[in-house]
Design brief:
The chain has about 350 residues and is mainly α. The chain has one domain (about 1-340). The chain is about 75% helix and about 0% strand. It contains 14 helices and no strands. Helix 3 runs antiparallel to helix 4 and helix 6 runs antiparallel to helix 8. The protein is globular and about 70 Å long. The chain starts with a helix and ends with a helix. Its EC number is 3.1.3.9.
Length: about 350
């Protein structure tokens, strides 16, 4: 693996050197590829166009990120920003000419890339649905294939951005793409539309317990499950770039919270609100603003149990805002307006 890692650093060095003028672009792309963007951005945008596709986004995003966490705990992948120092292959005379960014210092293991895996899974749901819709209207394979071209472009951009900022090695990005695609092919036909609340509560509990059992089992085997957090803190350029919301348990609580929220939303309003296109657009705008402020809510990082509990609640609220609260309010206002 030493050769693979060394070549990965070389690729990152070339990217930073030759595309330094695109730094802001790569940083923006890596934010769009963040797994939480699937819940906060892709989900509301798709839900108000196609409810089933919106539900599929949450379903696929949650399971793919949970599976990514399991893979990371078992594969022990290094990250470039700490491997450079830990490898002891570089001294002052041959240090690679690379630098870190605010998004670099993630604290979980590196393989496979979560950004690449979740992006590959979530956006396949979007482009396959869009491609099918376009083909039903045009009956043209060429035109309906355009979303897939954009899909490949997006995957490439997200992958390059992760290598550029030293968050992942190239082989970790490729592994993320492949696992994400394989997973979504399996999951897309299993969208839990109309399932009872008990299904979501049970499934979310199952994901949480299975991850905790794996965590305990690895520790019983003598594995330091927190090894990556220690290395991230040791080699990150700035202490403030280490964020608790990038820790492995944060992704776990996000996924479980989103699934519980999805179940609650379908429980409160089975089938969702039926709105014309104009109220849907208004609902999307208001939902987006609401999710923006929910995401920016500062959470106490100590004690960590409180942080994870509130982080869970935050993502329980996401489907409620998009599927129940905002569309219900818009329906109430537009319905009254029609009556008047």
């Amino acid at each position: 693996m030493e050769t693979v890692y060394t070549h990965g650093i070389w690729v990152a060095e070339i990217l930073q050197e030759r595309t330094s003028h695109l730094e802001k672009f790569w940083l923006t792309v890596t934010l769009l590829g963040d797994p939480k963007a699937a819940f906060l951005l892709v989900f509301p945008c798709t839900y108000f166009i196609s409810k089933r596709t919106g539900l599929a986004i949450v379903w696929v995003a949650a399971i793919s990120e949970w599976l990514n966490l399991v893979f990371k705990w078992m594969l022990f992948g290094e990250r470039p920003f700490w491997w450079i120092g830990e490898s002891r292959l570089y001294d002052k005379t041959n240090q690679p000419k690379v630098h870190q960014f605010p998004s670099t210092c993630e604290t979980g293991p590196g393989s496979p890339s979560g950004h690449a895996m979740v992006t590959a899974a979530v956006w396949w749901v979007v482009v396959s649905s869009l491609g099918s819709f376009i083909y039903s209207r045009t009956h043209s394979w060429v035109i309906s294939g355009l979303p897939y071209v954009l899909y490949v472009t997006l995957l490439a951009a997200v992958g390059i951005s992760r290598i550029f900022i030293l968050a992942h090695f190239p082989h970790q990005v490729i592994a993320g793409w492949l696992t994400g695609l394989l997973l979504v092919v399996t999951l897309k036909s299993t969208v839990p539309e109309g399932r009872p609340l008990l299904f979501f509560l049970s499934f979310s509990t199952g994901l949480m317990l299975s991850a905790l059992i794996l965590n305990v089992a690895l520790q019983q085997l003598g594995v330091d499950i927190y090894w990556s957090i220690s290395l991230a803190k040791k080699w990150c350029s700035r202490a403030e770039w280490i964020r608790l919301d990038t820790a492995p348990f944060s992704s776990l609580t996000r996924d479980c919270g989103a699934l519980v929220g999805l179940g609650l939303a379908q429980y409160w309003k089975p089938g969702g609100w039926s709105l014309p296109w104009a109220p849907r657009a208004l609902s999307l705008a208001v939902s987006s603003m609401g999710l923006y402020h929910v995401n920016r809510l500062p959470l106490p990082v100590k004690p960590q149990g409180l942080f994870y509990s509130l982080f869970f609640v935050k993502f329980v609220l996401v489907p409620q805002i998009v599927m129940v609260f905002v569309p219900g309010l818009v329906h109430l206002l537009t319905h009254k307006k029609k009556k008047d």
